[in-house]
Amino acid sequence: MADTTRRMPGAAGDLAEAHPDVWAAYSALGEAAAKAGPLSARERRLVKLALSIGAGSEGAVHSHARRARSEDIAPADLRQVALLAIGPLGLPRAVAATTWIADVTEK
C-alpha cells in the first residue's frame, strides 16, 4: 500500500499515509464495487469521471482524468463526457468540467 500512497497527490495521499487502515478499507470498498457488475475498466473510469463532474468536484475530475489518461483513454473521450453533462447538469457545469479535464490533458 505504501507504494500507491506515495503516488497520490495532495490531501488524499496525506490521509492514506496517516491512516493506512482507513485507506485500506476505502480501497477494498472501491475494489468490491468494481467487481460487483459487468462494466469494463474503461466504462467504470468514464462513469467515475461523469459522477465527479456531477458532484462538481474539481479534484475528483482531475484525478479521474489523470487515471483515464494513464489507462490510454483518449482526451476526446473525456471531453465528450463533459459535453454529455450539458443536458442533465447544465452548460456552466459542463464548461467547468471541460476546463478541469483540459488541466490534465493539455499539460
UniProtKB/TrEMBL annotation:
One of its GO terms (molecular function) is peroxiredoxin activity. Transmembrane segments: none annotated. Residues 20-102 form the Carboxymuconolactone decarboxylase-like domain. It holds the Pfam family CMD. SUPFAM superfamilies: AhpD-like (SSF69118). InterPro entries: AhpD-like (IPR029032), CMD-like (IPR003779). It comes from Jannaschia rubra. This is Carboxymuconolactone decarboxylase family protein.
